[in-house]
Amino acid sequence: MESEVDGSLVAAHELKAPLSVLRQLALSLDGLDVENGKIRSEMVAISERAIKQVNDLTRVRRLKDGLFEMEPVSVCAICDEVSRELYHLFNRNKRELFIKYTNRAKLVTANHDLLYSVVYNFLLNAMHYSGDDTRAELIVGDYHDKVKITIRDFGPALPIDVWREIRRGWVSKPTSIAMRPGSSGLGLYIASMFSKYMNASIGAIRHRDGTSFYVELPVSRQASLF
Fold this sequence. Notes:
The chain has seven helices and seven strands. The chain is α+β, with helices and mostly antiparallel strands. The strands form two sheets. It has a five-stranded mixed sheet with strand order 2-4-5-7-6. Strands 1-3 form a two-stranded antiparallel ribbon. A hairpin with a 2-residue loop joins strand 4 and strand 5 (146-153). The longest helix is centred in the N-terminal third of the chain and has 29 residues, at 34-62. The radius of gyration is 18 Å and the shape is globular.
């Protein structure tokens, strides 16, 4: 396992430089017509999302060093940040995102950057499986003494072997997900490892018309004092 993670770290460092160069080259293109301007924007967006995953892979390797501070963070604020970042991607692909907050507990114990990446990876995955007749859903609510973030998509069924691994509590390594070609097994692995570090639990519910991924986070003790 250690060698696999180290290999991912080496690959991450090797990939980040050319991705950054690609982004800068796209940004340097001037005098483009409307259509080519859209292509440039898409190139920049894709390279930025790839760089984000590369940075997340680097963070996975650093988890064992315990460098990511746990603190009270606002779940809704983080979900708002992620949805704002991905708004243009949803809009450009003519996808709809439904958001609902019903949680009374506002603060959880987590790391802002790691939780942001968990929500980002789940929501980016759901974007691929919303369409003209369906939508992605982001719902935050109370669940016993925790706060539960659920992201629902309406894509193909999640393979049973992947569902079982998630049910175990985490995903041990990046893997491709059969039947869901737009889905990122790497993103699921990253979300799993970050959640485990934060003492949060992830899970998945298989529906006839899609999948719900969720993460349950402990309510901040600081919040319980008020």
